[in-house]
Structure prediction request, 300 residues.
Amino acid sequence: MPIRIGTSERGGTFYGQGHALKTVLQRRPALAPVEVLASNAASTENAHRLHAGEIELGFMASNWIGRARSGEAPFARPLELAMAAPMNAGPLFFVVRAQSPIRSLSDLRGRRIAVGLRTGGMVQHAHGILGALGMRFSDFAPAYLDFAAGAAALAAGEVDAQFQCPIPNAVMTELAERVALRVLPYGAGELERVMAAVPYYRRAVMRKGAIRGLDADLPQVAVLNVLVTHPRVPEPVVGEAVTAIATASGELARLEPLFTGLAELFEPLRTHGRAALEFGGVALHPGALRAYRELRLLTE
Prediction:
């Protein structure tokens, strides 16, 4: 059965992961051919495509899943989805040029910030993080640019900061190589405030040297990104895809560093059961359930 995977804009993190996933999935006759589709609105567009039957698998940040299921804005109506597999948990962070007077997130007031595409997931994360710190979009000048355009604007001095997501990613690596950058730290108690306000975030640490200019380990928040499907996708197809992903986590990490640590993201299934991968009331697809039981990740 042909498999279409919804990702993100070209150059976005989901897009790179999607191509690595294609390499692994298309070796299995039941899943070939595999097509990777770009998306200008990533999570939200992938949810609509899944519901409409335009793709079989789609990357989504976990914060969008409950909204899609309930029809909460920006979704105009409830969408039917099913969970498949975790993909990565990566930091969300703000970068500025090294010489910038901006030293912390609170200094972003009154500045020009590239926050991602207007309809994309990064804008939602910016609302969540900055909102938890008492900052509204009216407190600064948002620039609705994708990753590549936002990086170019930061390099050119057209914005004062850019909101970025998981490293390594090609845009961030290239930007750090040609422009001296700093990652903004959280002030005292700020990280805890964000974590308390936004339940789907996890604490992450950006490791020293992960990008040029990151001179010390830096705590940040991270969101779990997942692969989602639809109940109409046949059970054997989803089961085959989940099995391929779970058994090829090491290879996926070699193909795309964003998959580093993927094997660890399956472990909560052993201790928390299916709830570990069910977000916003969206259940695991029966094919995924079968695969996890056969892999002995689930005992229920």
